[in-house]
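Step 1: inspect the first sequence and its C-alpha cells.
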Amino acid sequence: MTETETVKKQPVELILDDGHIEPVQENLSPEELYRVLVEHVKKYHPSDDISMIEKAYRVASEAHKDQYRRSGEHYIIHPLCVAIILAEMQLDKESIAAGILHDVVEDTVMTNEELEREFGSDVALIVDGVTKLERIRYNEDKLEFQADNLRKMFLAMAKDIRVIMVKLADRLHNMRTLQYMPPHKQIEIARETMDIYAPLAERLGISKVKVELDDLSLKYLEPEVYYDLANKIEIRKAEREQYVQKIVEEVSDQLKKAGIVFSIDGRVKHFFSIYKKMLNQDKTLEEIYDLFAIRILVNTVRDCYAVLGMIHSIYKPIPGRFKDYIAMPKANMYQSLHTTVLKPNEKPFEIQIRTYEMHKTAEYGIAAHWKYKEGSSGKQVKDQEAEKLSWLRQILEWQKDMSDNREFLSTIKSDMNIYTDNVYCFTPNGDVKTLPAGSNPIDFAYSVHSAVGNHMIGARVNGRLVTNDYVIANGDRVEIITSQNSKGPSRDWLNIVKSPQARNKINQWFRNEFKEENITRGREMLIEYCKQKGVDIAKIQKPEYIDAILKKYGFKEWDALRAAVGHGGLKEGQIINKMLEFYEKDHPTTITNEEVLKSVEENKKPVTGGSRSRAGIIVKGLDDVAVRFSKCCSPIPGDEIVGFITRGRGVSIHRTDCVNIVNLPEEDRVRLIEAEWQTDMVDKGKYLAEINIYCENKQGILSDITKVLSEKNISILSLNARTSKQGTATVSVSFEVAGKEELNRLIDKLETISEIIDIERAVG
C-alpha cells in the first residue's frame, strides 16, 4: 500500500508558485479524474492514441476494486492522481500507464509477468522498479540500512530513469495528503522527503516537484515556522501585489517599446527558500527584502541579454547579486539570468530572465524534452538529459568503489546537495568547469580527469603559480601542471578537497596502489582490535562467518575486505563486532564479558516479576537470576522478548522491537541473552501495557475510548492526550492485561471507532 491515507471530499493543500496555499479539490470520481488525465495528455502528446492509458485504467480499476481508504474512498483515486502529476510533467504514455499501475503488483494478485504481457517490457520495468522502492523505508539512525536503500534506488534509476519520476509523483501526492497520517508518521515521511526525494528532484532539475516537496516537508517538520511565515506573508499580500504590479507595468512598457515578445509575472519565493535564507543570514522575515521575484520569459538567448541591459538601465543593480546561469548553467542544467535591482526609495527585488525553453527545463528538468516516438525506449533522451544521466553513471561508479557505507552516504548527500553556491572557472582552452564553492586546484584537476589529478605536481591560476589550497574564485583560469614522475596524490589532499569526485578518486588511487600494504595493515588492525576487546579471533574467524561478512559488504575475497580495512574504507570494529554477532547467534549461551558474569553472580535470587510471585520467564543458560520487566516497552505474555544483563540489577526483559534494543551499541550486544515466556508458570496476574491511539480531534473521542476500555473490564492506570495544529490527537493509555491476546482483542474493538486513524504499541 502507499504511505498515506486520504479522506474523501477533503481539499488538499498545494503550494503554488506565488507561495500561497490554495485548496485543490480532489473530490472527483475515478471516471472524472480519468477524463482530466486524458485531457492533460492530449494537450502535449503528438499522438491521439490513448489505448494504452485506457487499458491501464481498466486493469488498475479492476485490480483495486475491493480496496478502499479508511474514508471509504476508492483506492484507484491515488494512482490516477499520480498519473495526472506525470502528465503535468508531460511524460510519455509508458510513464503515465506505469503511474496508474504502480501499485497493482504490490497490493493486488497481479504479477509482473502479467503486466509485461499486457503492457510491454517498458511499463513492467518501471512498475517493478517503483514496487521495489515502495519496500524501502528510511531510518536515519540505521546507517547500513539507509545506504543499502539508496544503492537500490540508484540501481533502479539506472535501469530506467522514469522509475524515479513515477516515484517522485507518488511521493508528491502522498505529501499532499499527509495531513491524514498519524503525527509520528507525518514527521518520518516528511524527514525522508526533505533528505532524499526533494534533493533528488532538484538534482534531476525538476524544480516544480522539488519546491512543493520542500514546502510540504517544512509544514510538518517545522509547523510553527511554516504557519508563521504563511500568516506574515498573507498580511502583506495586498501591499506586495500592488508593488509587484507596478514593477510589472514599468518593465512591460519598456519591453513593448523595444518590440520584444515576452511574458512576465511576479511570484513570492517558496517558503522553504525564505526559511533557509532566514537561517543562513540570521535574519527575521522583516529583514528579508527580496521575498519575491519578477520572471521574464522571451524567445531567444539574445533577447535575454537585451532585456538584462534594459532592466539595468531603468533600475540600479546591486553589486555582487548578478548571476549568469545561461553562460554557466547549474549542475542540474538550470539556465537563467538573475539580477537583484533597487528602485529609488524602495526595497530590492530579484528579476529572472530566461527563454521559454529554459523555463520548461527549469520546471520539469529531465522530463522537459522527453521523446514521444511510439514504441521508443524511455532511455532515449536528448543531449541535455544525457548530461544529467552522467551524474547517475558517476553515482553507480561510486557504488562499486565505496565499500564503506558511511563514506558512500556522505558522498551522495554532499553531491545531491546543490543548495550551496558553486564556483565557475575555466580550463586553458576556455571550457567551463563547475565546482563546489571553496574548491581548490586539486578539485579542478580531478574534475578534468583522474589521471590529471593523480599526476598533478602544481597549478597556475590566471598565469601565476598557486598553492594546492588556493580557493578558486569565479572566472579563474586554472592550469594543472602534471608529471609522469609524480608519486601520486598525498593523503593530506583528502583534508582539503571539497568535491566528492576528487575525494573518491584519491581514495581509489590509494586502494589500488597499496593493495598489498593495505591487506597487511588491515590484518594487523583486526588482530589489534581483538586484543584490545579481549576477543579470541580464532573463534570468530571461521569460514562460515567470513562468507557471511563478505556477502554483507559485497566483497568476493577476504583479502579485499582486509585491504578495505587497511586503507580506512571499513572500520575494524565494524567487522569484528559483526562477526561476533554471527558467532553469538550460533552460541547464544556463551558470555565472554567478565563484568557480565560478575553481574549475574551478584544478582542471583529467586525469579520475581514485580508484584507477581513468578515472572514466568526462562533466561537461557542462567538459573535463579533476578528478572525485571523494562518500563520502556512493557513486554507482556505473547510478545517476542530478549534479556539484557544489567550492571547490578540482574536481567531486564525487553520486547525485541524495543527501540533501546534495536539501537543498542555494538559493544553492549554481548549482554543480550535469549529469553522466553514459560506459559505453564505464568500466573493469572496482570502485565503493564501501553498503547498510542492516533485519532481525529473530535468532541467525545475520549469518552468513546474509555467506554471501550470499561466494556472490556480494563482498569486505566494513566491517560494522556495531546492535539496538533493539523486537527489530529494522540492519546497514550497505560493499563494492565493478562497477555497479548487480550490486548489484541482490545485494539480490534478500539479500531471500530470511526475517528481512530491508527493504534500502536509504545516501543520505548
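Step 2: inspect the second sequence and its C-alpha cells, then contrast the two.
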Amino acid sequence: MVNDPEKLVELLYELVESRGISGTAEEKIMADKVYSLLENLSYFKQEKPENLKLHKIETDPLGRTFVSALLEGRGNNTVVLLNHFDVVDVEDYGALSETAFKPRELTKKLAGMDLPAEARQDLESQEWIFGRGVMDMKAGLALQIALLEELSRDPASLEGNILFLSVPGEENSSEGMLAAVPFLNYMEQQRGLNYTGLVNCEPLKENEAGEFEISTGTAGKLLPLFYCFGKETHGMVPFQGLNSALLFAQLETVLELNSELSDSYQGVYSMPPTNLKTKDLRRVYNVTTPQVTAGYFNVFSLEQTPGEVLSKLRSLSRQAFQRSIDIYNSRLEEFCQLSGQELEGVDWQPNIYSYQELYNSVLEEHGEEINRHLDSFISDLKEEVMDQREFTLRLIDELHNYCPDRTPKIVIAFAPPYYPKFRNRGESAKEKFMLKVVDRIKQQAQEKYGEKLWVNNCWGINDLSYCGLQDSQDIVENLRPNMPAMGEVYHFPVEDLQKLNLPALIIGPWGKDSHKFTERLHLPFFTEKAPHLLRHTVKELLKY
C-alpha cells in the first residue's frame, strides 16, 4: 500500500469519512474502525490475532478505547508507531460542516468561496485536498497503517518489532496516551521489548526558510486556575466591599500576553499566556457584588518547571491584588471629593494562597473531619460535573468555605490537562542514537527528495509529552499538591511515566492550517515522499 498512491489516498478518505470528533462517542467508532482495518490484515487475522487489541480506558466517562498492534520480527528491538485518531469539531466550517469529512466534495465546494490568498493558491494548484482531519492527523494514521500492512507481509525479514498505538483524546486532554503509558511499560517488561524510539506522524510544518520541521521533543503546557475571593457588598454601597471581578480583571491585565511568562529554549520562544475562561460563581441574578470570580490561562513551558511557573504566578498575582487595592483607594478618594461625603474605606492587603496552602490552613483548623467531608463531596461532584476544569473550581470553592481566613484573596491552583515538556537531551545512549538517526533521515531527505529538514526540539503540544517525565521531582512537589483534580477525575500516571524514557521523533506528511476550515494536505508529499521517509526512519531505529 505504501507503494500504491491510489490505495493510500483511498485509505485516507476512508479514515477521514469515519469522523471521530474529540470528546464525543464518535471516538469509540473511530477506534473500532482502526481495529477493523488491522483485523483484516492476514498477519493479525491468521498468524497473530492475539497481538491486536482494543483497550478500554477504565477511567474514561465516555468509554473510549485505544488500539494496539504488535508486529513481531527478529529480536527485541522495537519501534513504537504512535498516532491519534480524533479530530477537532467542524463548527468553523459553517454551512459546509456536513461536507467537512468528505474531502473530494469539500475541495470542490471551496472553489466558490472567499478564501485566504494562500489557501486559494493551493486549491487552484490541484495538489492539495481540504477537509477536517486530512492532515491532523488522519494522513499520519494512514501512513502508519500502510507501513504496518507492508511489513506484515514478511515479518521474518523485519529486524525487530513494530508496536502500533492508536489513541483517542489528543485534541482534548490526551486521555488515550495517558492510558497507554502503563501498557507501554507492561509490554516492555512482559514481552521483553527493547524500545529504541517512538515515531509520531503528526503533520510537518514548513518554516520561512522552506524547510520542513521535524521534532525530537515537545513544549509543555500548564493551566493555572485563579480563584478570586472578594468581600461581598450591596451594589448601592460598593466601597464597603471588594469586588472579586475587580481582582480578576487586574489578574487579566497582568497576565494576558505577558512575556514574563513566555519561555525560551535554544532561540525558540513560547507564546505568552492568554485567558481561556472567566466566570463568577453566582447562579442567579442579585445586586450583591460577586463574591467569587475565577478563570484559567494557558501557560507554555520550554524550560521552566511547574514550581518556577507557580513562583512567577504568585508574584504576578500579588501585583494584580495591589493594583486592585490602588484602584479601590483612588476611586474612593475621587468619589469623596466629588460628592463631599466622607466614606471610610477598608485597609485591604494582598493575600495569595496556593491550593496546597489553602488545604493546609483548612486541615489545621478542622482536622481529619475535613478530609471525610471532602471525600463525600468529591464522590457527589464526580457524578454531577464532567468538565475537569469545573470540577477543580467547584472543589476549591467547597474547600474555601471552611477556610478560617475570610478576607479577600487569590487562590492559585492547576487544572487539567498538564503537558510536561519533553525533549531529547542527548544524555542516554538511546537519545544519542535517535539523534544519529535524525541526521541520517535529514541526509536521506536531502539527497533523495531534495527536501531540507530542520529539527525543532520543542514542537507544539502533542502526545510526545508522555514519553517520559523529565521534571518528575518538581511535579511531585509543586504540581500534584496544587492540582486537586489529579487522582480524582484526572489520571496522570506519575510513577509509570517515571519508568518510561522513550526517545521520540515527529515526522509525517505536509499540511497547513490545522484546526481551521482551510485545513489541507499536500498530496504529492503524502504519497511520494512521506511513506518512504517513514519506512526509512523505522528501519534505521531498529538498528540500535
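Step 3: confirm your contrast with the notes below.
Residues 306-339 form the longest helix (34 residues). The chain has a mean pLDDT of 95.
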